[in-house]
Amino acid sequence: xxxxxxxxxxxxxxxxxxxxxxxxxxxxxxxxxxxxxxxxxxxxxxxxxxxxxxxxxxxxxxxxxxxxxxxxxxxxxxxxxxxxxxxxxxxxxxxxxxxxxxxxxxxxxxxxxxxxxxxxxxxxxxxxxxxxxxxxxxxxxxxxxxxxxxxxxxxxxxxxxxxxxxxxxxxxxxxxxxxxxxxxxxxxxxxxxxxxxxxxxxxxxxxxxxxxxxxxxxxxxxxxxxxxxxxxxxxxxxxxxxxxxxxxxxxxxxxxxxxxxxxxxxxxxxxx
Length: 272
Prior knowledge:
- The protein is mainly beta.
- It has two domains: 37-110, Immunoglobulins (Immunoglobulin-like); 117-271, Immunoglobulin-like, CATH 2.60.40.10.
- The protein has two helices and 20 strands.
- The protein has helices spanning 2-30, 53-56; strands spanning 37-40, 44-47, 60-64, 68-69, 75-79, 87-95, 101-110, 117-120, 125-127, 138-142, 146-147, 153-157, 165-174, 180-190, 198-201, 205-208, 220-224, 236-239, 247-256, 262-271.
- The strands form six sheets. Strands 2-7-6-5 form a four-stranded mixed beta sheet. A four-stranded mixed beta sheet has the order 9-14-13-12, with no helix packed on it.
- The mean pLDDT is 90.
């Protein structure tokens, strides 16, 4: 009886091994070991700032020996931060019917890209009697991200409360691609009557290429006293502008009312 039982167990073991071997063999035969391949026509392409998903896929194809053309399955997996000014890497991926994944990458250069730009919604020119909040004055925009004012960090300001003088405000900002810029702006605190004339400009901070002549009156909007009376006829300007030297310059606008109170504002010019 025991001998018969051992024979049955041995036979069952042999059958199990044979079945396992058979199924393993069939699985090996049927298994797809091919991996898709992504082909890219150009190592770098130039794209517009508002490039679309389809445009990023231009010139990218994929093929698999078993599944054939897989171009329609290629996706943009991610886009890197800048590897150099205005240049990113785009990473592509594709998956075949057996979940084999292939990837590839190429560079893109954004056509017309410029670094982020700071702006001012008023001059950094304050009366000693005003509450000074620099963070509410400085803004920033980016050609890729739009308004990035929320990314601004005021890194330092040497302002002494209640003390007249010219100070320096330093700020930095970065966009989603990791392009970071900084600026050091002059800030004036002066003994100016709060009822002195108000001078309005269309811009308070501009960027110009080296060698560019600036017409300060092209940015002038109005000069009015505390009774909203026009005092433009009293307007005079002073500046330290040198268009041939990179740096930050100031155009000062002054206007005086009938009581001798002088208003003052500033157009800051960054020569690049």
